[in-house]
């Protein structure tokens, strides 16, 4: 799908991958509703309209669509990029804790897909959802986060067979990215290897949309590793064991020494 001339909504636009996607999209002739809970760091210009929204809440997503349609007339591309992680050692049963991350990482993007279908009817449109490499590779310490990405990946792999000719649904699988993502997950949270720059992820995402790709892999290394893991499944176990050792060392410092 061509980017030029399109009306776009981008969630998670104030930081990380979303911030870089926003920068890259402004190179085109577009109108963008740039969404975040905190919009002070989002530019406001002839191409970008900042909009404050908590996408974990159905009512606020509904209001976002109403606002975007009022301002833009229609939404051609919706980037469901907002998301977050917990790095933690699960020590108690906490329903609200689980629900919090699933509302943002799973319910909101799927609900946005449904909203885009209803809003556009037979018009051509695209939805781009930021998934993650950890939807296919175990990452100890991030079990809740990984489970949300497994859920989104599962939805994407099935929904591809339910899309219509006028619909492009794309899923992005970034590896660990050099942002505040892991800092926000927990203090001094262990960062998995390998790591990629957010601007490279953004470039890959925009290029993938322009080429109508359903699955976008910003890291060529991961694309190769993913194939090798299918041929040699034990590779994932070795990687998970290495990350598990890192997690347990971190957990000992973060939990045991402060309990």
Automatic annotation (TrEMBL):
**Which PROSITE patterns does the UniProt record give?**
ADH_SHORT
- Keyword annotations: Oxidoreductase
This chain belongs to the protein called: Short-chain dehydrogenase
Task: Write the lineage as a comma-separated list.
Answer: Bacteria, Bacillati, Bacillota, Clostridia, Lachnospirales
* Assigned protein family: Belongs to the short-chain dehydrogenases/reductases (SDR) family.
Gene3D superfamilies (UniProt xref): NAD(P)-binding Rossmann-like Domain
Give any Gene Ontology cellular component: cytosol
* Superkingdom, taxonomy of origin: Bacteria
């Amino acid at each position: 799908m061509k980017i030029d001339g399109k009306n776009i909504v981008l969630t998670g636009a104030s930081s990380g991958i979303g911030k870089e996607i926003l920068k890259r999209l402004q190179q085109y002739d577009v109108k963008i509703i740039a969404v975040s809970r905190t919009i002070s760091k989002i530019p406001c210009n002839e191409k970008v309209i900042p909009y404050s929204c908590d996408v974990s809440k159905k009512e606020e997503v509904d209001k976002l669509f109403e606002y975007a349609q009022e301002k833009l007339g229609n939404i051609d591309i919706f980037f469901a990029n907002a998301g977050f992680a917990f790095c933690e050692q699960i020590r108690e049963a906490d329903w609200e804790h689980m629900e919090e991350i699933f509302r943002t990482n799973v319910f909101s993007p799927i609900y946005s897909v449904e909203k885009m279908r209803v809003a556009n009817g037979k018009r051509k449109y695209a939805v781009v959802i930021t998934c993650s490499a950890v939807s296919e590779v175990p990452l100890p310490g991030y079990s809740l986060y990984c489970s949300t990405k497994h859920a989104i990946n599962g939805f994407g792999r099935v929904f591809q067979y339910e899309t219509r000719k006028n619909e492009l649904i794309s899923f992005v699988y970034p590896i660990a990215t050099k942002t505040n993502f892991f800092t926000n997950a927990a203090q001094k949270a262990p960062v998995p290897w390998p790591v990629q720059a957010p601007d490279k992820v953004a470039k890959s995402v925009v290029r993938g949309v322009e080429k109508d790709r359903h699955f976008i892999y910003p890291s060529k290394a991961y694309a190769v590793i993913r194939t090798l893991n299918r041929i040699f499944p034990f590779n994932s176990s070795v990687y998970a064991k290495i990350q598990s050792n890192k997690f347990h060392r971190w957990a000992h410092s973060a939990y045991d020494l402060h309990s």
